[in-house]
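Tokens as discussed.
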């Protein structure tokens, strides 16, 4: 049960939602899927005076093909990201990341934008969007600004979003046709949050060749692994990529799921697994 009283607003337009945020500022919380916000309010960890639902707005859950990029609405549910034909065709890595999030209920309520704003370091979308070079559009009554993932993700569960801003869209360059992708996660059990994860995207001709690692520090780390793979895609290249992942995870945090040292070792293992699987997928022409 949520103990504290709050005002609930369900605006129909983005302009109304922005005006409410502009008026109430940090006393206000946006509600997207509620998969994180509701438990946090139930535990009393957040006690907003005003909750503004984004669930009645139109125009925040679209998938727009804008030439070289897909523009995704922040209110897209994980289940839609996993199944949408354009996302599966042009951003197979993102679709794979979405498909493994939580359980059926979480995937049908939780949203792309809510997950990115919550910025849990081991969330599936963080490493995937960073690997894919996403840009995020945030709006307020003051206007609009675009941020890269390295600008947006600031620290553990902390983003560059101001209290009066809404994340409205995520723009992601299409993966080249025939790309190989793989999203590999270490979870205790099916449906549990990842502990460490790696997202690899490898295009034909190794353009691009990247692996993003999550759960090993406050923000995702992206490695360009084209140089290693150009020397051959054998054990030596994979070992070198694993070593780089281990180094990049030097600030891995310790919590009840595992020590920093364990996470560093898992960064090595999962980076290699993701790159191996992405190379196999590349050889299959990107078909899963
Ligand atoms: C049982 C369970 C298992 C889960 N497993 C996984 C998992 O395996 N992998 C994974 O990555 N995640 C997992 N999650 C988290 C899930 O993906 C959530 O959906 C996500 O973290 C929050 O998204 P939401 O849409 O529910 O946001 P909400 O809970 O509604 O909001 C989260 C925060 O973001 C803010 N916010 C939301 N949307 C916007 C916006 N557009 N602009 C500005 N601020 C906004 C809210 O004010 C709030 O502070 C799990 C959650 C649960 C409950």
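Sequence:
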């Amino acid at each position: 049960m949520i103990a504290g009283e709050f005002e609930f607003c369900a605006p129909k337009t983005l302009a109304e939602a922005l005006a409410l945020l502009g008026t109430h500022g940090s006393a206000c919380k946006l509600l997207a899927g509620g998969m994180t916000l509701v438990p946090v309010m139930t535990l009393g960890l957040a006690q907003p005076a005003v909750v503004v639902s984004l669930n009645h707005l139109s125009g925040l859950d679209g998938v727009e093909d804008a030439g070289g990029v897909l523009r995704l609405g922040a209110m897209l549910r994980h289940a839609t990201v996993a199944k949408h034909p354009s996302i599966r065709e042009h951003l197979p890595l993102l679709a794979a990341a979405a498909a493994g999030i939580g359980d059926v209920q979480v995937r049908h309520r939780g949203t792309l934008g809510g997950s990115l704003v919550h910025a849990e370091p081991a969330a599936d979308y963080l490493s995937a969007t960073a690997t894919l070079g996403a840009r995020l559009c945030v709006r307020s009554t003051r206007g609009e600004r675009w941020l890269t993932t390295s600008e947006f993700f600031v620290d553990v569960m902390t983003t560059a979003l101001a209290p009066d801003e809404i994340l409205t869209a995520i723009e992601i360059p299409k993966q080249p046709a025939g790309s190989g992708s793989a999203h590999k996660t270490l979870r205790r059990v099916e449906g549990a949050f990842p502990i460490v994860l790696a997202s690899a995207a490898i295009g034909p001709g190794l353009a691009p060749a990247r692996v993003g690692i999550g759960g090993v520090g406050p923000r995702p780390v992206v490695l360009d692994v084209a140089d290693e793979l150009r020397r051959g895609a054998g054990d030596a290249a994979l070992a070198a990529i694993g070593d780089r992942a281990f180094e990049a995870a030097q600030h891995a945090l310790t919590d009840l799921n595992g020590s920093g040292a364990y996470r560093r070792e898992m960064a090595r293992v999962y980076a290699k697994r993701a790159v191996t699987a992405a190379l196999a997928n590349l050889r299959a022409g990107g078909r899963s």
